[in-house]
Specification:
Elements: H1 8-19, H2 24-31, H3 35-42
Length: 43
């Protein structure tokens, strides 16, 4: 299995931004991930 290029800390930071109310499309673009990836991480 391929290792993720994001650490757990980076994933937690992205998920926290989503919980704060920032639009998903905006911070996903800045982080360089797709919205599907964000929702998989959140799950």
């Amino acid at each position: 299995m391929k290792a993720s290029k994001f650490t757990d800390v980076q994933k937690a930071f992205v998920i926290k931004q989503g919980e704060e109310g920032t639009p998903v499309a905006e911070f996903c673009r800045k982080a360089g991930i797709s919205q599907a990836t964000y929702f998989n991480w959140k799950k």
